[in-house]
């Protein structure tokens, strides 16, 4: 971001990392209908658009096995060294999975279970575009209008300039809302319910006039999720499961823990022990279960690959038409023209100012998102390539060096157009 175009990249990255837990610390594809996995590689590269992901050899889709081996070697080295406790990756091209593996262990304890391809991680801000998918379903059904005032759906959203905030502003980080509430720490220390955060977001003053500056903020996603709940009369976690996860076969994705114990997931490397970490940090039941739509989702690399493939195929996956091609196009183009801060609706873009560690070699149409817990999911429509990488080391470590490095290795593994 150029000087004068809102807050700096470092400030925005810092805000997102603090938003993880307020501490300043920075899978196999389900074998269900619409999400079948081929255990034996399919030698034929022919595939109908929207067909479920299936495994194949890299050379069948114009990728290099030896170059993909560099991805595995990198993650093996990171987990063996202890810099990263666990990592899982899924890479696919032209609708065919060419790499899907787990590395390391679920936690730092001796004898901890091995991380698998289908290990579940808290994906942090990768939850944001998934939440926005839920809202966009309502846009397609005529229940929500992006150009309408937020106050139309949330009348308590009152204050200076708030009458100017449109629903679409919540989705591309130009609403003027803060990333986190001023009372963020107090709420978390009190184990406040999500409804208390919603009330705070409705009442908190705007930092900027809407649509004038880019300011990465989680509270916009929170209010987008609240709109879904108000319009449908259904809890967001229920709506997302019934309308997105189940139809696509994303059976290991949940907003909140979905009945899991925290110990059954990959444990985030949160830093030195403290009372706050033990009480409400990113590995506590409280924070994992509260279901905050800006970062409280659990998923696997394989499940995220399904969603990315649906976007590459114009909104369809298997027998499910999730979104129309028109909606997919709207979500993956720049919604902030003139601000010098490209962003889609929910999705970050290759040239976005933050949370876009999609690799230096990605094409201009690449979209995805990064999570502060060390996660990234992206898709490159020009190459029909996708990558979901989930780790336990914070994305802020080395300014996203590991996520960016692996993304580069994946992009460089493409050997044919």
Description:
- The protein has a single domain, classed as 3-Layer(aba) Sandwich (Beta-lactamase), CATH 3.40.710.
- Mean pLDDT is 91; it is low at 1-43.
- The longest helix has 17 residues, at 65-81.
- The strands form three sheets. A seven-stranded mixed β-sheet has the order 1-3-2-12-11-10-9, with helices on both faces.
- It has 417 residues and is of the alpha+beta class.
- It has helices at residues 9-21, 65-81, 127-140, 167-171, 184-189, 194-203, 219-232, 236-248, 275-280, 285-289, 301-312, 325-331, 401-412; strands spanning 54-55, 86-93, 96-104, 121-122, 254-255, 297-299, 316-317, 320-321, 348-349, 367-371, 375-380, 385-391.
- Helix 2 (65-81) packs antiparallel against helix 13 and helix 6 (194-203) packs across helix 7 (219-232).
Query: Shape from CA axes?
Result: globular
Bin the strand percentage.
5-15%
Give the fraction of residues assigned to helices. 25-40%
* Gross CATH architecture: 3-Layer(aba) Sandwich
Strand segment tally: 12
- Strand adjacency order, main sheet: 1-3-2-12-11-10-9
Structural class: alpha+beta
């Amino acid at each position: 971001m150029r000087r004068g175009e809102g807050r700096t990249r470092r400030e925005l990255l810092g805000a997102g990392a603090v938003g993880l837990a307020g501490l300043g610390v920075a899978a196999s594809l389900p074998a269900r209908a619409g999400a079948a996995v081929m255990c034996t590689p399919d030698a034929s590269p022919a595939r109908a658009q929207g067909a479920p992901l299936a495994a194949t050899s890299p050379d069948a889709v114009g990728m290099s096995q030896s170059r993909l081996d560099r991805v595995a070697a990198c993650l093996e080295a990171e987990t063996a060294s202890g810099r990263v406790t666990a990592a899982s990756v899924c890479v696919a091209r032209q609708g065919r999975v060419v790499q899907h593996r787990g590395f390391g262990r679920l936690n730092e304890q001796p004898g901890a279970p091995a991380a698998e391809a289908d290990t579940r991680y808290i994906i942090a801000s990768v939850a944001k575009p998934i939440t926005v998918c839920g809202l966009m379903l309502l846009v397609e059904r005529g229940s929500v209008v992006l150009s309408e005032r937020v106050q139309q759906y949330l009348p308590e959203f009152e204050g200076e300039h708030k009458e100017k905030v449109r629903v679409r502003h919540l989705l591309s980080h130009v609403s003027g809302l803060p990333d986190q509430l001023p009372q963020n720490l107090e709420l978390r220390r009190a184990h406040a319910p999500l409804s208390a955060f919603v009330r705070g977001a409705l009442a908190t003053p705007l930092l900027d006039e809407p649509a004038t500056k880019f300011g990465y903020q989680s509270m916009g996603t929170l209010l987008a999720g609240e709109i879904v709940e108000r319009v449908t009369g259904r809890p967001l976690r229920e709506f997302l499961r019934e309308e997105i996860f189940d139809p696509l076969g994303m059976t290991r994705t949940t907003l909140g823990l979905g009945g899991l114990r925290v110990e059954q997931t990959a444990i985030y490397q949160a830093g030195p022990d403290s009372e706050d970490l033990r009480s409400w940090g990113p590995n506590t039941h409280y924070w994992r279960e509260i279901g905050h739509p800006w970062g409280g989702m659990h998923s696997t690399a394989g499940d995220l690959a399904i969603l990315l493939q649906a976007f590459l195929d114009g909104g369809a996956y298997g027998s499910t038409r999730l979104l129309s091609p028109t909606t997919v196009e709207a979500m993956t183009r720049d919604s902030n023209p003139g601000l010098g801060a490209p962003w889609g609706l929910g999705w970050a873009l290759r040239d976005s100012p933050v949370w876009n560690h999609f690799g230096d070699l990605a094409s201009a149409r690449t979209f995805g998102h990064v999570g502060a817990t060390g996660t990234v999911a992206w898709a490159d429509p020009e190459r029909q390539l996708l990558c979901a990488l989930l780790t336990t080391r914070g994305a802020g470590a080395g300014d996203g060096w590991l996520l960016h490095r692996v993304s580069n290795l994946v992009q460089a593994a493409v050997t044919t157009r």
